[in-house]
Automatic annotation (TrEMBL):
Keyword Oxidoreductase: yes
Protein name (record): Pyrroloquinoline-quinone synthase
SUPFAM superfamilies cross-referenced by the UniProt entry: Heme oxygenase-like
Keyword set, alphabetical order: Oxidoreductase, PQQ biosynthesis
InterPro entries, A to Z: Haem_Oase-like_multi-hlx, PqqC, PqqC-like, Thiaminase-2/PQQC
Coiled coil: none
Taxonomic classification: Bacteria, Pseudomonadati, Pseudomonadota, Alphaproteobacteria, Rhodobacterales
UniProt gene name: pqqC
UniProt source species: Poseidonocella pacifica
Amino acid sequence: MTQTREEFEARLRQIGAERYHDKHPFHDMLHGGRCSPDQVRAWVINRYYYQHSIPMKDAAFMSRVEDPELRRMWRSRIEDHDGTETNPGGIKRWLKLAEAVGLNPDYVASTEGVLPATKFAVDAYVRFVRDKTLLEAVAASLTELFAPKIHAQRIEGLLQNYDFADDSSLSYFRNRLKEAPKDVAFGLAWVLDHATTQEKQDAAAKALEFKTDVLWAQLDALYSAYVAPARVPPGAWVAGEGMALARAS
């Protein structure tokens, strides 16, 4: 049975309440100051792979959109990450964080040392957005509904617990608190407008669940490789590699 607009929005929000990655034990460690410096570095390296893939995901989406209005609204997402003449963008802000935790930004940007499971999860998300319906692609982005809470927790936890944390190193998260609301307001309204049958509502809900799985899988990979028991796969980052130039000399 097709849900009302209000019922369907509540269904989408319940997915975040149950499945969003703020509930993963790695985030408890990170925000609570229980991560070692190398565990923080591993998180920065692997999360970068997701950050740098977001504009490619959005470009793949836009390449299939025939509606100029939808393209125009979606274009700002690429600019938010890649930057403009007046905005350095989320990718450069993330590399500032990498430098702050003692990593060489060039090493991080190379994506060498990224866990295989991280690559599989993120690449699967890019393919999903490229190949699925536009409704499913937009619905998958709605994890942004739940992101402001985790960004606020992260800013507070990192500032309280880690010496590297300051306004410069955490600028990515502060900026997302301003950027994400406009994206999610448009995306949510678009999904609610277009999920007009039970079949479409079910597909959109499954797409959002898929995206929560993508985010959760990345943290599972980190936890397995760098927490307990630590099992770093061949080719992935190991402590001491890719450090900042000043520390490597």
